[in-house]
Structure formats: structure tokens, C-alpha cells
Amino acid sequence: QVQLVESGGGLVQAGGSLRLSCAASGRTLWTDVMGWFREAPGKEREVVGAIRRSNSNTYYADFVKGRFTISRDNAKNTVYLQMNSLKPEDTAIYYCAARTSVILSTNTRDYQYWGQGTQVTVSS
Questions:
Q1: What does the pLDDT read at residue 54?
Q2: Is the torsion defined by CA of 48, 53, 76, 108 positive or negative?
Q3: Which residues contact 44 (CB under 8 A, 6 or more apart)?
Q4: Is the CA virtual torsion 110, 111, 117, 119 positive or negative?
Q5: Among 31, 47, 56, 99, which one is least packed by beta carbons within 10 Å?
Q6: What is the pLDDT averaged over residues 42-65?
Q7: Is the pLDDT confidence value at 7 over 90?
Q8: CA 10/CA 120 separation, integer angstroms
Q9: Coil, strand, or helix at residue 89?
Q10: In this structure, are strands 78-83 and 18-26 parallel, antiparallel, or unpaired?
């Protein structure tokens, strides 16, 4: 099993920044791909981006390109989501997820392990 714990959410003004962390524990060698997703009230969960921990290949959703950056620290089994130039529409619960594959995926169904989520609220 793999356990994921997100942290770093909070309230920030539009234009501000936050850095989310996702600490993985357990059988982390099973999981090369880590994804960040978000779910806003009344909306479906959507992908923000994903990263391969072995080579740092990344994918980003169009709506975050140039504003968000995903990185990893394998020594700490931690993946980060740096969010800059935040907008009110970025308000959501942000989830970290892991999948037992080496292929980046944007589909929630491809991820076997999920964190509990962390709330990000951007005020206008």
C-alpha cells in the first residue's frame, strides 16, 4: 500500500502563491507517476498535472501552464505543486494521487492511491 498526505493549502489573495506538498510513504517504489488533481464545488475532479518521479517528465493542464510547476524530491518521497499567479477560479480541494505505472495519465481512474486533499481558497 501507498499512503499520501498533502499539506500547504490555505487562503491566499488573487495573484499570490502557494506551495503544496505530497508526502508518500509505504511501497513507494510501486508508484512512478504522481498526479495533482483538483475538485471545485459542483465540478468534477480534474487533472492539474503529473510527474514521473524517475525522470521528472511532466504534464500540465492548459489552464495552469506558466503558472504552476510540479517538482519532486525523491530522497524525501515528496512531490510539490508550486502555484503562482493564483486566480479565484483556482479555488478547490487539491488532491495528490499515485499510479502503479510509468505512463503519465490525466485520468482519475488510472490512479490507485489518493491523499485526503487540501483546501486552496483564492480571494478576489
A1: 85
A2: positive
A3: none
A4: negative
A5: 56
A6: 93
A7: yes
A8: 5
A9: helix
A10: antiparallel
Q: Is 5 left (phi over 0), alpha (psi -120 to 50) or beta?
A: beta
Q: Give me the percent of the chain exceeding a pLDDT of 70.
A: 100
Q: CB pairs under 8 A, 24+ apart, for 58-63?
A: 58/104, 59/104, 59/106, 61/106
Three-state secondary-structure class, residue 74: helix
Query: Model confidence over 18-49: pLDDT tens digits?
Result: 999 999 999 887 789 999 999 999 999 999 99
Q: What integer pLDDT is reported at residue 55 of this predicted model? A: 85
From 57, 50, 65, select the one nearest 107 (Cα to Cα). 50
**What is the Cβ-side half-sphere exposure of residue 11, based on CA atoms within 13 angstroms?**
2
Strands 113-114 and 118-123: unpaired
